[in-house]
Design goal:
222 residues, Rossmann fold, seven-stranded mixed beta sheet, globular
């Protein structure tokens, strides 16, 4: 069975948006590969902090049951300084190598420019024009990025797919806690309480105790 691929602009985005689904897929025996596009470089980010964050990232993936983590090492918060073709090429090569049939992307309407550019390059990489094209492509939401967009100006995240993570919410929250440098006290959005609240809200909208919400971008039914 082909792997599931999750693309994260930064460490922790995949946990915030897809953590419960990753844990569920792993529990079901699916191979989940996470590709983290960027890393922090001096002078914007201290090298010690970057290395600690990477350790936290790997710990979170271990908790979720991620099969493999790929670090692409483009510059964090400066993805706009990298040639679009270079990012396209890196993600395209990843698609050719892994041939995933299911892919999760950041939402193109997120307020963070890295998220927008990662989403656009990912959409280039999953174009339906070669044998490695995935049959299902989803966009996920990231707290403090997706919901800070400008209404009426940037695209709105309008989920139409909900994944029951009732049995995996505690695993998602544990994985998020692994990011010791990122977790903030409530009512900050990057808090354990806010992350749980979003899962409860998304679940309640479809009659579940907890869920993650996605936008289905493409599905090919053969």
């Amino acid at each position: 069975m082909s792997p599931v691929l999750v693309l994260a602009p930064h460490p922790d985005d995949e946990v915030l948006g897809v953590g419960g689904t990753i844990a569920r897929l792993a529990r079901e025996g699916r191979s989940v590969i996470v590709a983290v596009l960027t890393r922090g470089y001096p002078p914007d980010f201290a090298e010690e902090g970057t290395l600690r964050n990477r350790d936290h990232n790997l710990r979170a993936h271990q908790i979720l049951g991620v099969s493999e983590t790929r670090f692409l090492d483009f510059p964090a918060a400066r993805l706009d300084t990298v040639a679009h073709a270079e990012v396209n090429s890196a993600l395209g090569a990843l698609m050719l190598e892994l041939r995933p049939q299911q892919v999760y992307l950041p939402f193109a309407g997120d307020i963070h420019l890295d998220h927008q550019l990662a989403a656009l390059s990912a959409m280039v990489a999953v174009r339906p024009c070669r044998a490695s094209t995935p049959s299902v492509v989803y966009a996920y939401e990231t707290l403090s990025e997706t919901n800070w967009n400008a209404p009426g100006i940037t695209p709105a995240f309008q989920p139409n797919v909900f994944v029951d993570i009732t049995d995996h919410l505690s695993t998602k929250l544990e994985a998020f806690r692994a990011f010791e440098m990122q977790v903030q006290p409530f009512p900050h959005e990057r808090s354990v309480e806010a992350l749980e609240a979003l899962a409860r809200l998304r679940g309640a909208t479809v009659g579940l105790r907890a869920a993650e919400a996605f936008m289905l971008l493409r599905q090919v039914v053969a």
